[in-house]
Amino acid sequence: MKKIIFLAALILFFLSLSSTSATHVDCGAFINIPTVLDSNLTCTGNGLIINASNIVLDCNGYTIQGNNYVGTGIYNLGYQDVITIKNCVIQSFGTGLQLYNSNSNTLQNIIANNNTRTGGNTVSHGVLLQNSNNNSLQHITANNNGNLGGYNSAAYGILLQNSNNNVLQDINASNPAGNGISLVDSSNSNTLQNIITNNNRDGVYISYSNNSVLQDITANYNINGLNIRDFSNFNTLQNITASYNIYSNAVGVLLLNSNNNVLQNINASNNNPGVGCGAYAYGLYLAGSGSTIRNITANNNGQICNGNAQGEGFVLQGHNNNLQYSNTNGNGNGLRLYGSNNTISFITANNNPSGAGLFLGSAIYNTIFSVTANNNFGGLALHSSNSNTIRDINANNNNGGLNLYQSNSNTLQNITASNNSDNGIKIYGPSNSNTFSSIAANNNGNYAQGGGFSINGDNNFFQDITANNNGLVGGFYISAANNNILQNITANNNNGYYGYGLHLVFFNNNTISSSTFISNNIGVFLNAANNNTVYNNYFNNTNNAWDNGFNFWNITKTPGTNIIGGPFLGGNFWHDYNGTDIDGDGIGDTLTPYTAGGYIQNGGDFLPLVKKPAPVKTPVGNRVNVTNATPCC
Q1: Quick one: residue 521, left, alpha or beta (phi over 0 = left, psi -120 to 50 = alpha)?
Q2: What is the domain extent for residue 58?
Q3: CA distances, 369 to each of 193, 230, 315 (Å)
Q4: What is the pTM of this model?
């Protein structure tokens, strides 16, 4: 019995030894059993052909060398599964390694370089998977696979075609004549992790492929870092570096006609067109809908040409996207937005020297909040953009803080647009039916240019506005504008060349109320303006008013607390009104109408507001009697 056991063990030992020992095969051999190479191969046609399932081909570090860039280094005949191919160097074929209709395989420690075809209408690959699913590709290098010329030719480091649920991990793919890694034709639910794909046309290219995860990827020095297009949806891209991509209209991360993707933790910076003036580059360009984009850095994209930066950090063109917690600095435009119902929040867009921090073009029903846009040519610009909600914005130290051009029905609130070299806020085109509230536009322009607000538009509403210490045109310059309402405005200390608190020209049927104009050269200046109503305001200026039109400087006496705390609304408080309130109602009864020394040329304020005198205190023995300075009757 002991002898039988010994012989059985000896047989198992030799079987085990034979299954792992090196085997000599030649080019063109069919691999039907587990095989370990014992030497390099140099082939004039195909290399090795897998013809069975459940086998291991271990190249043992040897090289399978092609000749004249024809044939395939390793491939299967189709429908062989559970294959392991490892430790191979495959080079100088048309395609390095190909699996067709083959599932649940493992490819590891593969170098598939310099596989190239010649002539037109040809395609070369380092690794090609077709109709193959549930495979694992680990530690793959696929470099310098290309095409030696010819019209309509293509090249790929790794190409998955109609192949699903594959895992690609620890990949290096650099192919200047083609793409690093490509997923096409319904290659879905794949995972790409720890990828370096530099110096390609596209570092990663995805077309008509969904539900994949791309993470921990470096895609630099390509034409496009990542190119995801043609209805590639529900993919996740995270922990990506896509920088220094260089070509005319190069893009760090490009998504075209692709929806509902998640992009996070991406650096798409320093992408450059690399050619003459007129070409642009972009950090992230998305044309699609329903995507979530967060924690993106898109800085210094484009080139300086004739003193202008030609490039953009972000371009969003689509609907229902959500961009948040991102930085876009040092580009031409920081962010350019087209489309509708997008949400943009917690963005820093600074130091974009020749464009806007944020630019909205033909954009509607978007929500934008918590944005800092400083030190740009323009802080925030809206062109032909309607019905957007914009709040909690800092747009300071730009050439212009906030511009609206032919943009209507927008709501803008809690905005600071100060210390800009021209206008804090410019509304033109015209732009109509917008609502502005809780706005600070201070210290804009200088003695010779700029101001707080420049307004050309109708039916706009301004409330809770501060426009102090501004330059040339002062706090507000309003022209060719009708039916606007301005209330609770503070326009003080505007002492530029004109130094107006509020300057209105060709301005009709507007209302200015509950506002303060102090220490300006002229408080309110109305030129060729008619049928405007100015009431319940506080004036204390070098010259309080100038008006050559036919306007109303008071309303009918109405019960209500006025701007100086009196019990009636009527006209305005004028610091230099010297009339008397005879009946004690807080409205002057003499020297009316008030005409600002004759500068209100037609009519004037018939109900000027008067401060109630302070009570007079007179001692009587040990008591103090308090009496009114003005008798009640």
Answers
A1: alpha
A2: 27-218
A3: 34, 31, 17
A4: 0.90
